[in-house]
Amino acid sequence: MTEAIRDLESKLFDRKNNPKTNSYTSHLFAAGEDEIVKKIGEEAVEVILAAKGQGDWRVIEESADLIYHLLVLLVSRGLSWSAVET
Predict the structure, then answer these.
(1) Is 13 within 8 Å of 25 (Cβ atoms)?
(2) pTM for the full model?
(3) Cα separation of 80 and 19, whole Å?
(4) Does residue 63 contact residue 47 with C-beta atoms inside 8 Å?
(5) CA-CA distance, 49 to 55, in Å (whole number)?
């Protein structure tokens, strides 16, 4: 599990340093922290809604979205997943 997060983090750092046209991740970095934390809030609500009646698969999907957006926030601040582990 940690390896998958580290791989994603590496890709996010690369995308931050090498933005690409038509990339959702590049769009988030360009939009700034307010947009990123807005997405985290939306995804957190979606995890809750999924848990309260949309089934396990939706919980998994929405959890993945939440983790992705949390990693985008960390990377946007120059932080790493290892800081969370610590």
Answers:
(1) no
(2) 0.92
(3) 19
(4) yes
(5) 10
